[in-house]
Amino acid sequence: MKESGGGRKQGTISPCAACKLLRRRCAQDCVFAPYFPADEPHKFASVHKVFGASNVNKMLQELPEHQRSDAVSSMVYEANARVRDPVYGCVGAISSLQQQIDTLQAQLAMAQAEVVQMRLHQFPSAPNPATNYNNFSENKHNVSYNNTTSQTKSFFTMEMVVDHHHHHQPNMGESLWSC
């Protein structure tokens, strides 16, 4: 067929993928042609299978031209997802990706905890509440480790703080650590 404008090349052209699949003549003002080129027949085939050509035509006709390309991309994505997973479609893909994110976040948290543990073992001068409990009970105003005396010793984001206002021994259940 000969075309003379309308955004399509002059000369003999093959019908768009939609018209080819539907076995109809591809008109100059075909709503499908800009979005379903002849060299990508699978795009329209999946969209047609899921939504139907008539519904796709209606959706495209109702949209302003500047939104049609995005709408076709969304329809192709949803149609491909429905073909792969007829029950859940995109929701199934999103759910699967969310589960992967949750799993990876848990793995990341475990790896970060391992790094903290490795750093605790790497720095022997780090305070250990179990070993420093006796030092605390013997001398309430200073905490001592490795010949260093300080009232507050910072380690990562945790600090061991000695309270000078309370002159009682902490219970075994009380924590010397504050975050």
UniProtKB/TrEMBL annotation:
Signal peptide: none
Coiled-coil zones: 94-121
Family annotation (Pfam families): LOB (PF03195)
Domain of life assignment: Eukaryota
PROSITE patterns assigned to the protein according to its UniProt record, in alphabetical order: LOB
Matching InterPro entries: LOB (IPR004883)
Keywords for this protein: Coiled coil
Segments forming domain LOB: 14-115
Record family assignment: Belongs to the LOB domain-containing protein family.
Protein name per its UniProtKB record: Lateral organ boundaries domain protein
Lineage: Eukaryota, Viridiplantae, Streptophyta, Embryophyta, Tracheophyta
Gene transcribed to yield this protein: LBD10
